[in-house]
Amino acid sequence: MIKSEHFYLVFQPIVRVSDQYTFVVEEFEVLLRSIKTRKFPADTFHEILENESKYNKYICWFKSELEQKIQEYPSTKFSVNLDIDQFQFHSTFQFLKYFCQYHNQLIVEITEHTPKNNPKLLFALDGILKNIKLCDYKIAIDDYTEGINTFSLYKNHRRYYDRVKITFLGYKSILHILGLVLYVGFMRLFFSKRIEIVVERIDSLRKLKIAKNLSVCLQQGFYFTTDNNIRLSGKGDHHYKPNP
C-alpha cells in the first residue's frame, strides 16, 4: 500500500530574515505529497488514519524516508507535522521514541486538524504533549488561529510549546501576528518564557518585509522555494538576497 510510487516528501525551507532583508536557511519542514496530484493527499491520508494496518505501513515508510534525510544532512533541522488522530496508534509513539536519538534535529508540529476517528484524543492532548517532551523534542503549534489551535488551547498547554506558527493570509492576519508578537514579548519579559514565532505563507517580498517589521525573523513560504530556488542543503550558512 505505502510505497515510494504513491507518496514523496518535500522539504520546505524555514529562513531567518535579517534587517537588510537577506535571509539564511535554518531548517526545513517535511511535507507529504502525492505522486499523482503533487499536493497533500488529504483523502488518502484520512483513509490511512481509519485503518491501523495501513497506518503502520505508512509510518514505517515515513520513518525510513525521514531517517535517510536526517543521516544525509546531520547539521540540518527538520519540522515534522503530526495530526492528533495519529496518536490513536501506538506506532506513532514508537516513531517518536525511535527518533529520540535525533531529537536535536527534529521539531514536532501539532497540526490544527480536529481528531475525527477518536475525538477523545483532544482531551488527552496534555498527556500527548508531555510524552513528546519526554523525548526532548521541541514542539510547535501549527497554523495558530486555525482549527483546534486557538489561543485558548495554546494558553492551556503553553508550557509544552516552544514555537507558534501563524499564517499570513491577508491584512486581518497582520493583527493576529502583531497580537502574538506582543504576547510572546510579554511572556519573555515577565515569565522568562522564550517562544519562537514562524510566519507562513510568505509569497512576496512585501509580505517578507511586513513580517520582519513586525519583529518576526523566522519565515516560510512559496517565496523562498520558487523565486529564490532554494534546495535542501546540509549547510545552514548560505545567505540569500530576495528578488526585488
Walk me through the topology:
Elements: E1 7-17, E2 23-34, H1 42-49, H2 52-72, E3 77-82, H3 90-98, E4 106-110, H4 125-134, E5 138-144, H5 151-156, E6 163-167, H6 171-191, E7 196-200, H7 205-213, E8 218-220, E9 239-240
Parallel strand pairs: 2-3, 3-4, 4-5, 5-6, 6-7, 7-8
Antiparallel strand pairs: 1-2, 1-8, 2-9
Structural shape: globular
The beta-strand count equals 9
Mean pLDDT across the residues is: 90
pLDDT below 50 for ≥5 consecutive residues: which ranges?
A: 233-240
- The helix content, as a percent range, equals 25-40%
Number of helical regions: 7
Cα radius of gyration in angstroms: 18 Å
| Spatial strand order of the main sheet | 1-2-3-4-5-6-7-8
Beta-strand residue fraction: 15-25%
Structural class: alpha/beta
Order of SSEs: EEHHEHEHEHEHEHEE
> What separation lies between the terminal Cα atoms?
45 Å
Biggest sheet, in brief? 8 strands, mixed, barrel
